[in-house]
Structure formats: structure tokens, C-alpha cells
Design brief:
The protein is of the alpha/beta class. Among the domains are: 3-65; 96-345, Aspartate Aminotransferase, domain 2 (3-Layer(aba) Sandwich), CATH 3.40.640. The protein contains 14 helices and 12 strands. It has helices at residues 3-20, 33-39, 51-64, 83-95, 106-123, 136-151, 155-158, 175-183, 204-216, 239-249, 304-311, 343-378, 405-422, 449-465, and strands spanning 73-74, 129-133, 165-170, 191-194, 220-227, 252-256, 281-284, 297-301, 382-384, 395-397, 426-432, 435-439. A 7-stranded mixed sheet has the order 2-8-7-6-5-3-4, sandwiched between helices. A hairpin with a 2-residue loop joins strand 11 and strand 12 (435-439). The structure holds pyridoxal-5'-phosphate. The site of pyridoxal-5'-phosphate has 15 residues, from helix 6. Pyridoxal-5'-phosphate (PLP) binds at residues 77, 135-137, 174, 176, 227, 229-231, 256, 258-259, 285, 297.
């Protein structure tokens, strides 16, 4: 066996040990940046190293990484893993193609296009197109670009000229939407925030009022961004009502379904997405609730021409697009040139669990979130801070004797810090208005009811010490 093969086998063993080890390790190492720098040794050595050094480095990396596969990891909108998806990653890296042309990535192109077609069908669009992207943030950017192109097709040729675009986003939308508007030059003053109701859902009346004001002031309202599954609270904007307003004013409706899009697979909860078929574009991240390793993200559009136009090149890259027929060259509908075959891990996992399995996964996570919500509601010192619609559970520790807001905020902030430092659980904290909350998310199916019982006990123990 060659040295390379030996290294491959032994490192796969290390990774296997990590993946299948069910014992609880500390979720996060407490080492500082400087300590880790020393611990990891010479990261950019001058001379070659033996296999042992490389294996040691792999082991150190595993040991010091956050254990996002652990059932007690509930910090992000993703976590856990499917072995099929990890195999997909290995397969993709081993075959190392690029998604720009059918020529270079024949099977991967068929797989990507087939998955996109299935997603379009689930949305309920008769026609449409889509592409895998580098993440939901990128999907939101594409949505805005399509919206501007729809509103003002001459833009790509003659630039902005005198147009004064305005975009309408909810106060609870993800920061990437605001970034995307800034990146395409809309100007922060032209990003109009729409009020939300007390559950965090966009208020359609406020939206209509602000669009009317915008038109009266000679702006061009070009896009409304609704969210299906907001980042902090997991709420769903009323898509159908928002679509009525967009139709009335002929404005592009982009849906940020990066987090909540997986609900498409659940017969039981699909009504959360009522009206989704009336949107114009959607970003959806399978790397979130569907448990695939980052990155696996899609952008979908009901008007294929818009995607083609925003991605079209000024210079014809003849070195790349050789075929007579470029209709299967996905580089023609992507902002990326070289692009990983991210659809492969989704495909292998789909083969393993089927469409039904995706639905069951969503139902399981929502069921568990409901269970956690009940634990919170029944607990005398916990307070639910937002009604739960999805798998985000927002609450805080509220000691009976404490009434000062700042003191309660500080307590909850420290509580989360101590919880994470102890290493048994990892959840996030966030702010709802001026209130500090704890926000565990159920994003993977390794989490059990018993995990949630333990989380509440652990929170109680730490809070009492504080
Ligand atoms: C609602 C929403 N949209 C977009 C994004 C950005 O997605 P990504 O991290 O894939 O860029 C996030 C990330 O959490 C999100 O919660």
C-alpha cells in the first residue's frame, strides 16, 4: 500500500471514529485563538511532513472543532449529519468537477436539474428554473437582481440613470437581504422596513401604505422580500396577502425561505407556506433544516428568462462554453464560474430517505420544538418570549424577585455564556427588541425529548448559581 493510501485509510478511520462516537464530548473547546494557534503547531511548514504529523493534525482539528453533530448542539439553523451527505462530500471532492458546463459535469448537471425540477413542482410552479448557489445570502442577492431586471430590463445595458429604486423588507428579515440591496447599489436609505405584528410577521397594511408613499414620492418600488422562517423567531410572513399587494402594484416578490423552505416537504405543516406559488423567486437552503453539510443552497425563479439575463456575460467566454447547445450549461444561469457539485449530497440523501423522509424530518423537528415550548411554558421561572410557529423556541429565565429589565437581560446573557462554557449544550442568544432571549433551535433529528429535558435542567442549575 502506498503512503498516500495508508494516510487515506487512517484518516478515514479517525473521521469514522468521530462520526460514530456516541459518547458526549464537550461541545466546544474553551481554547482561545492564541492557545489554538500554539496547539495546532506550524500551519504553513517549509518542509514536507510524515503521515503521523498529518494524522495528528486531523485528530487535533476534530478535537477542537465544535461538535455540531451532537444532539446537544442547538445553536444554529443547521446541525447533525446524514452519512449519505458526508459520502456525497467525499464523492464530490474525489471526482472534483465544476458545474459550469454539461461537458465537465454531465451526471451532476442531470442531478442538479432534476432536483431543481422537483422543487419547482413542490412549489407549484408550471414553469421556472433554478440553480444551486453559495448560500441563502447569495440567493437573496439573485432575487434582488432578478427583481431589478424585471422592473427595469435596460439596467444591465445603460445602468441606473435616474431611477430611484426602493425595496421593502420586514423588520425581522435576515441581514443578508439588506446587504444584497446595498451591494446592488440601492442605497441604505431606499431600504424601507415594514412593521411586524407582535408575532414577528410582516404587516401587509403597512407594506401597502409604504409602497403608495414610495410611488407618490416618485420612487420605483422594485421588490418586496417576504420571509418564510425568520432567523430569530422562525415566523412566516403572510405570503398570500403580500402577493396580492405585489400583484396590485406589479412588484417582484422574492421569498427568503432559506430556513423555512423545508416545510414544502411536510403535508402537515405546508400551510405555513400558503401562497408560495404566487412568489416570483425563492431562496431555499437544504443545508439548514434538511441536515446537509454546508453548503447546499438553491435559488428558484418562476421566470427562467430573468435568471438567464442577470447571469449573462458581457464577454462570451468561448474557452468555456463550447457546445452548440448551451441549454444544459449551468454556468449560464449562475453568478459563479467554477462551482462545486453541491446537489450530490442532497441527491444521495434523497435516495436514502425519499421525499417522505424529508417530510418526516420536518414534522419531527416541529414536534420536538412544540415539546420544548411546553417545557418552557410549564416552568415557573421560564418565560416564552414569542409565539412558536416553527422550530425556534425563544424564551428567557425570569426570576420572580427580579423586575429590572437590564438586570434580567444581563442574567440571560451570562446564562448562555456559562451554558456554552460548561460544554454540555450550545444554544444561541439573541435580542427581541430590547429583550435578551435564549434561542435554541431544533434543526436536526439527533435531538430527543430527553435532550430537551436535560437542557432545561442545565439552564435551571446555571441560572440558580448566577
Ligand atoms: C432567513 C435567512 N435567510 C438567509 C440566511 C443566509 O443564509 P446563508 O447562511 O446560507 O447565507 C439565513 C441564515 O441564517 C437566514 O436565517
Amino acid at each position: 500500500m502506498s503512503k498516500e493510501q495508508e494516510l487515506f485509510d487512517e484518516s478515514i478511520n479517525l473521521i469514522k471514529n468521530y462520526l460514530f462516537d456516541k459518547s458526549h464530548k464537550k461541545i466546544r473547546s474553551e481554547n482561545s485563538f492564541e492557545e489554538l494557534k500554539i496547539d495546532l503547531g506550524n500551519i504553513t511548514p517549509e518542509f514536507p511532513n510524515q503521515n503521523e504529523i498529518i494524522l495528528e493534525a486531523i485528530q487535533k482539528y476534530i478535537q477542537t472543532s465544535v461538535k455540531t453533530k451532537d444532539e446537544r448542539y442547538m445553536q444554529s439553523l443547521w446541525g447533525g449529519n446524514h452519512i449519505t451527505a458526508i459520502l456525497g462530500e467525499v464523492l464530490v471532492a474525489s471526482t472534483n468537477t465544476s458545474m459550469y458546463t454539461f461537458d465537465t459535469a454531465p451526471s451532476a448537471t442531470v442531478i442538479e436539474k432534476s432536483i431543481i425540477s422537483k422543487l419547482l413542482q413542490l412549489i407549484g410552479w408550471q414553469e421556472g428554473d433554478g440553480v444551486f448557489t453559495s448560500g441563502g445570502s447569495n440567493g437573496n442577492l439573485l432575487g434582488l437582481l432578478c427583481a431589478r431586471n424585471y422592473s427595469y430590463p435596460e439596467y444591465s445595458k445603460i445602468g441606473n440613470r435616474n431611477r430611484r429604486f426602493q425595496i421593502f423588507i420586514s423588520k425581522e428579515s435576515h441581514y443578508s437581504v439588506e446587504n444584497a440591496a446595498r451591494i446592488i447599489g440601492i442605497g441604505t436609505e431606499n431600504i424601507i422596513e415594514i412593521n411586524c405584528n407582535h408575532d414577528g410577521e410582516m404587516d401587509p397594511e403597512d407594506l401597502e401604505k409604504k409602497i403608495q408613499e414610495s410611488i407618490q414620492s416618485s420612487f420605483t418600488p422594485f421588490c418586496v422580500v417576504a420571509t418564510a422562517g425568520t432567523t430569530v423567531r422562525g415566523c412566516f410572513d403572510p405570503i398570500d396577502k403580500i402577493a396580492n399587494i405585489c400583484k396590485k402594484f406589479d412588484i417582484w416578490l422574492h421569498l427568503d425561505a432559506a430556513w423555512g423552505g423545508a416545510v414544502l416537504f411536510s403535508e402537515k405543516h405546508r400551510m405555513l407556506l400558503e401562497g408560495i406559488e404566487r412568489t416570483n423567486s425563492i431562496c431555499f437552503d437544504p443545508h439548514k433544516l434538511m441536515g446537509l453539510p454546508l453548503i447546499c443552497s438553491t435559488f428558484l425563479v418562476n421566470n427562467p428568462q430573468q435568471l438567464r439575463e442577470i447571469s449573462s456575460c458581457v464577454k462570451d467566454p468561448s474557452y468555456l462554453f463550447h457546445g452548440e447547445d448551451t441549454k444544459f450549461d449551468l454556468g449560464k444561469i449562475s453568478l459563479a464560474c467554477g462551482r462545486r457539485a453541491d446537489a450530490i449530497k442532497l441527491w444521495l440523501t434523497w435516495l436514502s430517505i425519499g421525499t417522505k423522509g424529508w417530510g418526516e424530518r420536518v414534522d419531527y423537528c416541529i414536534e420536538l420544538a412544540k415539546y420544548l415550548e411546553n417545557l418552557v411554558v410549564k416552568h415557573p421561572q421560564l418565560e416564552l418570549m414569542s409565539s412558536r410557529k416553527f422550530t425556534n423556541v425563544c424564551f428567557r429565565w425570569r426570576p420572580k424577585h427580579m423586575s429590572n429589565k437590564e438586570e434580567i437581560n444581563n442574567l440571560n446573557f451570562k446564562l448562555r455564556q456559562k451554558l456554552v462554557a460548561k460544554g454540555n449544550f450550545m444554544i444561541s442568544s439573541a435580542q427581541l427588541g430590547d429583550t435578551q432571549i435564549l434561542r435554541p433551535v431544533i434543526a436536526h433529528t439527533t435531538i430527543q425529548k430527553s435532550t430537551l429535558n436535560e437542557l432545561i435542567i442545565e439552564i435551571g442549575k446555571i441560572a440558580k448559581k448566577l
